[in-house]
Amino acid sequence: MAEIVEGPKPVRITARETARRFFGHENAVLVIVLVALIAAFGVITKGGTLGRANMTNILLQSAIRGVASVGQAFTILTAGIDLSVGGVGLFTSMLGASMMTAVLEQNIVGHPVSIYIAMPVMVLAGAAWGAANGTLVSRVGMPALIVTLGMWQICKGTSFVLGGGRYIIDLPDSLNFFGLGDVAGMPVLVIIFIVVAVIGYFILNHTVFGRSVYATGGNPVSAWLSGISVKRILLIVYMISGILAGLAGVMMTARTMSSMMRTLSGLELDTIAAVTVGGVSLAGGKGNIIGVVLGVLIIGVINNGMSVLGATITAQGTIKGGIIIAAVAIDYLRRR
Predict the structure, then answer these.
(1) Which of 56, 135, 148, 152 could be cross-linked to 87 through a Cys-Cys bond (beta carbons 3.0 to 4.6 Å apart)?
(2) Burial class (CB in 10 A: 0-12, 13-18, 19+), 241
(3) Looking at residues 310-332, what average pLDDT do you find?
(4) What's the chain's average pLDDT?
(5) What residues contact residue 209 under an 8 Å CB cut-off, 6+ apart?
(6) Alpha-carbon torsion 120, 126, 127, 129, what sign?
(7) Residue 74 and residue 176: Cα distance in Å, rounded?
(8) If we measure between CA atoms, which residue out of 39, 65, 72, 55 comes closest to residue 252?
(9) Domains and CATH numbers, the chain
(10) What integer is the mean pLDDT of 126-138?
(11) Residue 299: which pLDDT band, with cuts at 50, 70 and 90?
């Protein structure tokens, strides 16, 4: 008589097990915080922040900040930092606007340039500033904090020279699509952010370069002994940060259809806040892009909520500074 072999019994996943898995995920707390903030500001403003137009505005603002934050994440994962992102974004915005403007007194080439020439030039300019940062950090051995802080000021100074400190307007109408257009109802700026985040996630999690970034941040000596070119990794991550800061400059210029010295002001603080809140350790070697995206949205909700409540720029900066300190303190205690 043939023996009947029973198949494996189906595993029942209880609600308790599902909850345990959810809360055990490294980004679960961030999701809870994000939902709680949206609900809290909705209650405080009596639904003022929950309208579709306002939520879209949060996504648009977060998209620009998020693109630069992905680049910032690469540098912080190597235990570095990039304080020049705001200056680089401002420079690329001024450069592109002064190339595309129809106001000939402000146009640095004497005639309006096509957006399909100006935008790649803006991104390449960001890459050049990033390469300068990376060279000084990786080859000369200077501290990233000092290098990028100085580069931030250099970018601001050259931006003033480019635009003469004036408000540059009268840009091509075709640029408006990249700032306020949409594809199938999805804003173009948000699409760009999603694409950048997906690429960043893939690079960090599914490539040799990504593993080398984590190894360099975790222990650069061990990474070097295992055959990783630490100097090359550092150069590339600062170039990535510069490229994405330049892209943020393109996005902001397209959204406002203008450029001025206040463009992307405070971007460096916003990106550091988003990355640290998103769980990326300032000590390097720990964090992920999904957490960064959630951190970007959390900072976006906070900024928007405070603006709706009438908080001043100074108050917003104070709160974001406190958020950074709290995030770093939590990371420090967790590592201990």
Answers:
(1) 152
(2) buried
(3) 79
(4) 90
(5) 203, 233, 236
(6) positive
(7) 30
(8) 65
(9) 48-335 (1.10.3470)
(10) 97
(11) very high
